[in-house]
Amino acid sequence: MKKPPGNPAARLEHLREEAAGCRDCPLWENATQTVFGDGDARAKVMLVGEQPGDQEDRTGHPFVGPAGRILDQALAEAGIPRAHTYVTNAVKHFKWEPRGKRRLHKTPAQREVDACRQWLEREIATVQPAVVVCLGATAAKSLLGPRLRISQERGTVQRREGFPDLVPTFHPSYLLRLKGRAGEEEAHAQFVSDLELAARYLKDKSDR
Ligand code: URA
Predict the structure, then answer these.
(1) Does ligand 1 come within 6 angstroms of the Cβ of 62?
(2) So what's the pLDDT on residue 206?
(3) pLDDT along the chain (208 residues), means of 10
(4) Which of 150, 173, 174, when mutated, tests ligand 1's pocket best, judged by the most ligand atoms within 8 Å of its CB?
(5) Minimum-distance ligand 1 atom for the alpha carbon of 67
(6) Are residues 130 and 164 in contact, defined by beta-carbon separation less than 8 angstroms?
(7) Which pairing describes strands 165-169 and 131-135: parallel, antiparallel, or unpaired?
(8) What does pTM read for this prediction?
(9) How far is the CA of 89 from the centre of ligand 1 (A)?
(10) How far apart are the C-alpha atoms of 203 and 206, rounded to whole Å?
């Protein structure tokens, strides 16, 4: 992927300002704001989720709610300081439906993921990470194509022309839903092990 000119942090700031006014799909209408990625503009590890949730929509930062806490814990176990990563989402507006006073997450449609891919691709081109961890099916399918199955391909290194190495894994919300249920421990261990795979890029590819 061709690197745009200029300092990555300044370039990301410019992208963030551009994305704040994005109207390429209707999701902006019911969202508080565009939630752009944040973190280290020169990170070797980029993490891509699905879309902001309720707390992310209110604060304007990715993965700061319950799923973010699961992610932070697993990153710590895998030896990846979150401050050394760049964290973003495949879709940058919160899609939700009302349920009483609550705003319930709704999975984004393919056309919304497609409309938002330009921002993700421009973030990847700017940060130039060594590895992109796709958290869940929406992120994985956005970057790896619709046939990707997390259950079959999680924890493997996938290669696509013009992209850094890509590692699909579970979405932290899946682990949240498994809490206290059969399979929780195994899924957590697999999630940490997939992040450990990404952690190797912090060490191996230090001469970027
Ligand atoms: N889930 C996501 O996919 N991204 C967030 O930022 C928060 C929850």
Answers:
(1) yes
(2) 52
(3) 83 98 98 98 98 98 98 98 98 97 96 98 98 98 96 97 97 97 97 98 68
(4) 173
(5) 8
(6) yes
(7) parallel
(8) 0.96
(9) 7
(10) 6
